[in-house]
Design brief:
Oligomer: single chain
Strand order of the largest sheet: 3-2-4-1-5-6-7
Structural class: alpha/beta
Number of strands: 9
Bound molecules: guanosine-5'-diphosphate, magnesium ion
Number of domains: 1
Distance between the termini: 32 Å
CATH superfamily: P-loop containing nucleotide triphosphate hydrolases
Largest sheet: 7 strands, parallel
Strand content: 15-25%
Length: 211
Protein backbone atom coordinates (compact mmCIF):
# COMPACT_ATOMS: atom_id res chain seq x y z
CA UNK A 1 0.00 0.00 0.00
CA UNK A 2 2.86 2.41 0.86
CA UNK A 3 4.58 1.67 -2.47
CA UNK A 4 1.30 2.31 -4.30
CA UNK A 5 0.77 5.62 -2.49
CA UNK A 6 4.36 6.72 -3.17
CA UNK A 7 3.96 6.03 -6.90
CA UNK A 8 0.64 7.88 -6.86
CA UNK A 9 2.18 10.90 -5.10
CA UNK A 10 4.92 11.16 -7.73
CA UNK A 11 2.39 11.06 -10.57
CA UNK A 12 0.23 13.60 -8.73
CA UNK A 13 3.16 16.07 -8.50
CA UNK A 14 3.66 15.65 -12.20
CA UNK A 15 -0.08 16.29 -12.88
CA UNK A 16 0.02 19.44 -10.72
CA UNK A 17 2.89 20.88 -12.77
CA UNK A 18 1.22 19.79 -16.05
CA UNK A 19 -2.03 21.62 -15.14
CA UNK A 20 -0.21 24.73 -13.97
CA UNK A 21 1.78 24.92 -17.17
CA UNK A 22 -1.50 24.90 -19.14
CA UNK A 23 -3.03 27.67 -16.99
CA UNK A 24 -5.46 25.24 -15.35
CA UNK A 25 -6.62 25.35 -11.74
CA UNK A 26 -7.51 21.79 -10.74
CA UNK A 27 -10.16 21.30 -8.03
CA UNK A 28 -10.78 17.88 -6.48
CA UNK A 29 -14.42 17.79 -5.32
CA UNK A 30 -15.08 15.11 -2.73
CA UNK A 31 -18.04 14.15 -0.56
CA UNK A 32 -20.51 11.41 0.28
CA UNK A 33 -22.89 10.07 -2.42
CA UNK A 34 -25.70 12.60 -2.84
CA UNK A 35 -23.92 15.36 -0.90
CA UNK A 36 -24.48 17.74 -3.82
CA UNK A 37 -21.12 17.55 -5.65
CA UNK A 38 -22.57 17.64 -9.19
CA UNK A 39 -25.09 20.36 -8.30
CA UNK A 40 -22.32 22.50 -6.78
CA UNK A 41 -19.92 22.03 -9.70
CA UNK A 42 -22.71 23.02 -12.11
CA UNK A 43 -23.46 26.20 -10.17
CA UNK A 44 -19.73 27.01 -10.04
CA UNK A 45 -19.30 26.52 -13.79
CA UNK A 46 -22.12 29.07 -14.34
CA UNK A 47 -20.62 31.52 -11.86
CA UNK A 48 -17.11 31.22 -13.37
CA UNK A 49 -18.50 31.66 -16.86
CA UNK A 50 -20.05 34.99 -15.78
CA UNK A 51 -16.53 36.02 -14.83
CA UNK A 52 -15.05 34.90 -18.15
CA UNK A 53 -13.52 31.61 -16.99
CA UNK A 54 -14.09 28.28 -18.74
CA UNK A 55 -14.64 25.03 -16.84
CA UNK A 56 -13.87 21.40 -17.67
CA UNK A 57 -14.97 18.32 -15.74
CA UNK A 58 -13.60 14.86 -15.03
CA UNK A 59 -16.44 12.76 -13.66
CA UNK A 60 -15.57 9.86 -11.41
CA UNK A 61 -18.26 7.25 -10.85
CA UNK A 62 -18.32 3.54 -10.20
CA UNK A 63 -20.41 2.72 -13.27
CA UNK A 64 -22.75 5.28 -14.83
CA UNK A 65 -22.01 8.20 -17.16
CA UNK A 66 -25.06 10.24 -16.06
CA UNK A 67 -23.15 13.14 -14.53
CA UNK A 68 -20.75 13.56 -17.49
CA UNK A 69 -23.75 13.58 -19.86
CA UNK A 70 -25.40 16.30 -17.77
CA UNK A 71 -22.30 18.50 -18.14
CA UNK A 72 -22.06 17.86 -21.87
CA UNK A 73 -25.70 19.02 -22.15
CA UNK A 74 -24.64 22.28 -20.55
CA UNK A 75 -21.79 22.56 -23.09
CA UNK A 76 -19.19 22.03 -20.40
CA UNK A 77 -16.53 19.61 -21.72
CA UNK A 78 -16.58 16.46 -19.60
CA UNK A 79 -14.95 13.04 -19.57
CA UNK A 80 -16.38 10.13 -17.59
CA UNK A 81 -14.02 7.91 -15.62
CA UNK A 82 -15.64 4.69 -14.47
CA UNK A 83 -13.72 3.06 -11.64
CA UNK A 84 -15.70 -0.23 -11.98
CA UNK A 85 -16.01 -0.78 -8.25
CA UNK A 86 -12.97 1.17 -6.98
CA UNK A 87 -13.93 3.65 -4.25
CA UNK A 88 -11.61 6.51 -5.34
CA UNK A 89 -9.74 8.05 -8.27
CA UNK A 90 -5.94 8.11 -8.56
CA UNK A 91 -3.39 10.32 -10.28
CA UNK A 92 -2.91 7.93 -13.23
CA UNK A 93 -6.60 7.84 -14.25
CA UNK A 94 -6.79 11.62 -13.88
CA UNK A 95 -3.91 12.13 -16.30
CA UNK A 96 -5.46 9.66 -18.76
CA UNK A 97 -8.85 11.41 -18.51
CA UNK A 98 -7.36 14.93 -18.76
CA UNK A 99 -5.55 14.02 -21.96
CA UNK A 100 -8.92 13.16 -23.53
CA UNK A 101 -10.20 16.70 -22.83
CA UNK A 102 -9.46 19.65 -25.06
CA UNK A 103 -7.51 21.38 -22.30
CA UNK A 104 -7.54 25.17 -22.16
CA UNK A 105 -7.01 27.86 -19.57
CA UNK A 106 -9.69 27.60 -16.88
CA UNK A 107 -10.86 25.45 -14.01
CA UNK A 108 -10.76 21.66 -14.17
CA UNK A 109 -13.20 20.14 -11.68
CA UNK A 110 -12.74 16.53 -10.71
CA UNK A 111 -15.86 14.97 -9.22
CA UNK A 112 -14.41 12.18 -7.09
CA UNK A 113 -16.29 8.97 -6.29
CA UNK A 114 -18.89 9.53 -3.55
CA UNK A 115 -17.00 8.39 -0.44
CA UNK A 116 -15.69 10.07 2.73
CA UNK A 117 -12.84 7.62 3.34
CA UNK A 118 -10.71 6.42 0.41
CA UNK A 119 -10.39 9.65 -1.68
CA UNK A 120 -8.57 11.37 1.23
CA UNK A 121 -5.58 9.07 0.72
CA UNK A 122 -5.04 9.79 -2.96
CA UNK A 123 -3.49 13.02 -4.18
CA UNK A 124 -4.67 13.57 -7.77
CA UNK A 125 -2.47 16.55 -8.59
CA UNK A 126 -5.17 19.08 -7.72
CA UNK A 127 -4.48 22.61 -6.46
CA UNK A 128 -7.61 22.83 -4.28
CA UNK A 129 -9.39 20.11 -2.30
CA UNK A 130 -13.08 20.90 -1.89
CA UNK A 131 -15.40 18.86 0.31
CA UNK A 132 -19.17 18.97 -0.17
CA UNK A 133 -20.61 18.13 3.24
CA UNK A 134 -24.39 18.26 3.22
CA UNK A 135 -26.46 19.34 6.18
CA UNK A 136 -28.66 16.17 6.17
CA UNK A 137 -25.52 14.03 6.74
CA UNK A 138 -25.36 15.51 10.24
CA UNK A 139 -23.17 17.92 12.20
CA UNK A 140 -21.04 15.13 13.67
CA UNK A 141 -19.26 14.18 10.44
CA UNK A 142 -15.97 16.04 11.16
CA UNK A 143 -15.68 14.03 14.40
CA UNK A 144 -16.04 10.75 12.50
CA UNK A 145 -14.24 11.22 9.16
CA UNK A 146 -11.03 12.69 10.56
CA UNK A 147 -8.66 12.07 7.60
CA UNK A 148 -11.03 13.67 5.08
CA UNK A 149 -11.79 16.72 7.24
CA UNK A 150 -8.05 17.17 7.96
CA UNK A 151 -7.14 16.94 4.27
CA UNK A 152 -9.36 19.59 2.67
CA UNK A 153 -8.83 23.30 1.86
CA UNK A 154 -12.45 24.29 1.48
CA UNK A 155 -15.77 22.98 2.81
CA UNK A 156 -19.07 23.70 1.09
CA UNK A 157 -21.81 23.16 3.64
CA UNK A 158 -24.39 22.12 1.07
CA UNK A 159 -28.20 21.92 1.30
CA UNK A 160 -28.15 24.67 3.92
CA UNK A 161 -31.81 25.33 3.05
CA UNK A 162 -32.56 22.07 4.94
CA UNK A 163 -30.86 23.20 8.18
CA UNK A 164 -34.06 23.65 10.23
CA UNK A 165 -35.77 20.57 8.81
CA UNK A 166 -32.94 18.26 9.89
CA UNK A 167 -31.92 20.09 13.09
CA UNK A 168 -28.33 20.75 11.98
CA UNK A 169 -26.14 22.25 14.73
CA UNK A 170 -23.67 24.45 12.88
CA UNK A 171 -21.71 25.31 16.02
CA UNK A 172 -21.01 21.65 16.67
CA UNK A 173 -19.96 21.10 13.03
CA UNK A 174 -17.54 24.03 13.24
CA UNK A 175 -16.16 22.77 16.55
CA UNK A 176 -15.32 19.43 14.93
CA UNK A 177 -13.91 21.02 11.79
CA UNK A 178 -11.75 23.55 13.65
CA UNK A 179 -10.19 20.80 15.77
CA UNK A 180 -8.71 19.43 12.53
CA UNK A 181 -8.43 22.12 9.92
CA UNK A 182 -8.37 25.79 9.00
CA UNK A 183 -10.32 25.06 5.80
CA UNK A 184 -12.58 27.86 4.58
CA UNK A 185 -16.28 27.17 5.15
CA UNK A 186 -19.15 28.41 2.97
CA UNK A 187 -22.84 27.55 3.00
CA UNK A 188 -24.66 26.76 -0.22
CA UNK A 189 -28.37 26.25 -0.84
CA UNK A 190 -29.02 25.36 -4.44
CA UNK A 191 -32.48 24.24 -5.46
CA UNK A 192 -33.57 24.03 -9.06
CA UNK A 193 -30.17 25.34 -10.05
CA UNK A 194 -30.65 28.54 -8.06
CA UNK A 195 -28.30 29.58 -5.29
CA UNK A 196 -30.18 31.25 -2.48
CA UNK A 197 -27.12 32.30 -0.55
CA UNK A 198 -23.83 33.92 -1.44
CA UNK A 199 -21.97 30.63 -1.06
CA UNK A 200 -21.37 29.87 -4.73
CA UNK A 201 -20.04 33.39 -5.39
CA UNK A 202 -17.70 33.15 -2.40
CA UNK A 203 -16.39 29.75 -3.51
CA UNK A 204 -15.80 31.14 -7.01
CA UNK A 205 -13.86 34.05 -5.41
CA UNK A 206 -11.77 31.55 -3.46
CA UNK A 207 -10.98 29.57 -6.63
CA UNK A 208 -10.05 32.66 -8.61
CA UNK A 209 -7.69 33.72 -5.80
CA UNK A 210 -6.12 30.24 -5.88
CA UNK A 211 -4.99 30.56 -9.50
N1 LIG B 1 -32.48 21.10 -1.00
C1 LIG B 1 -31.34 21.01 -1.63
N2 LIG B 1 -31.10 19.94 -2.42
C2 LIG B 1 -29.91 19.86 -3.04
C3 LIG B 1 -28.90 20.84 -2.90
N3 LIG B 1 -27.81 20.46 -3.61
C4 LIG B 1 -28.13 19.28 -4.19
N4 LIG B 1 -29.40 18.92 -3.86
C5 LIG B 1 -30.11 17.70 -4.30
O1 LIG B 1 -29.45 16.57 -3.75
C6 LIG B 1 -29.49 15.47 -4.65
C7 LIG B 1 -28.09 14.95 -4.92
O2 LIG B 1 -27.34 15.97 -5.55
P1 LIG B 1 -26.10 15.66 -6.51
O3 LIG B 1 -25.53 16.99 -6.90
O4 LIG B 1 -26.48 14.72 -7.58
O5 LIG B 1 -25.12 14.92 -5.48
P2 LIG B 1 -23.77 14.08 -5.76
O6 LIG B 1 -24.16 12.63 -5.74
O7 LIG B 1 -22.88 14.43 -4.61
O8 LIG B 1 -23.21 14.55 -7.07
C8 LIG B 1 -30.18 15.98 -5.91
O9 LIG B 1 -31.54 15.60 -5.84
C9 LIG B 1 -30.03 17.50 -5.80
O10 LIG B 1 -31.07 18.21 -6.45
C10 LIG B 1 -29.18 21.98 -2.06
O11 LIG B 1 -28.35 22.87 -1.83
N5 LIG B 1 -30.40 21.99 -1.46
MG1 LIG C 1 -22.61 13.43 -8.81
Amino acid sequence: MQKLLKENDELAQDNRAFFKEKGILCVNVMGAPGSGKTTLIMALTDELKKRGLESMVLEGDLYSSLDAEAFEQKKVPAVQINTCGECHLDAAVIREGAEKLALRRGVLFIENVGNLICPAEFDLGEHVKLLASSVPEGDDKPFKYVPMFSYIDLVALTKYDLKEAVGFDRENFEKGLRALSEASLFETAIRNGKDRGRGVELIADFLIKSF
